[in-house]
């Protein structure tokens, strides 16, 4: 497969007209008129937020444990465990983080820090979401939004990774935020991982790169 050199990249889809199909307080849905790379005309869906700031996913941490909330996800028709998150309240993601922390856990952070951002669905959503690390000293609180949050709990990192491995936590925004948090060094690696020991299969047996070769 021939790759296009970085200096020659150009958008293969050109927007000819932005067509609003639906809007409400939280989102605007566009059904844009576009021209594709082969010259053919068509349409492309695009969902954008009318708010000025970004949405936020929070990573609340208290004495080594991560705060999770259980919320009902209407599109899935199911309850999900995940990190607190929400639509923008302000252009400043830290203000949105403070608001979501109060709404979903009833807590106040002693410190907040932006870890990074990610694209939750770049094929459809025209927005990025910011990941905010929140240091929590006191976890005695009740969520302000009792209609949205059904329950909450705090998991140590090892228990968190174990639940992810078994499918107990499968919310995509939560998984993306945890990956950024781990890459940023604010969360320990999975207990099963060891960056100094990379397994490899050799001659039908699994070996490790850690240390010298045995039996030589």
Structure, briefly:
With 216 residues, the chain is an alpha+beta fold.
The tally of domains stands at 2
Mean pLDDT: 86
How do the SSEs run, as a string of H and E? EEEEEEEEHEEEHHEE
What fraction of the residues are assigned to beta strands by DSSP?
35-45%
What does this protein structure show overall?
The protein contains 3 helices and 13 strands, in the order E-E-E-E-E-E-E-E-H-E-E-E-H-H-E-E. It has helices at about 95-105, 155-165, 170-185, and strands at about 15, 20-25, 30-35, 40-50, 55-60, 65-75, 80, 85, 110-120, 130-135, 150-155, 200, 205-210. The strands form 3 sheets. Strands 5, 6, 7, 8, 9, 10 and 11 form a 7-stranded mixed beta sheet that branches. Strands 1, 2, 3 and 4 form a 4-stranded antiparallel beta sheet that branches.
Keywords, please?
alpha+beta, Nucleoside Triphosphate Pyrophosphohydrolase, 4-stranded antiparallel beta sheet, 13 strands, 16% helix, disordered C terminus
Walk me through the topology.
Blueprint: E1 13-17, E2 20-23, E3 28-36, E4 41-48, E5 55-62, E6 65-73, E7 78-82, E8 85-86, H1 93-105, E9 111-118, E10 129-135, E11 149-156, H2 157-165, H3 172-184, E12 199-202, E13 205-208
Parallel strand pairs: 5-10
Antiparallel strand pairs: 1-3, 2-3, 3-4, 5-6, 5-8, 6-7, 6-11, 9-10, 12-13
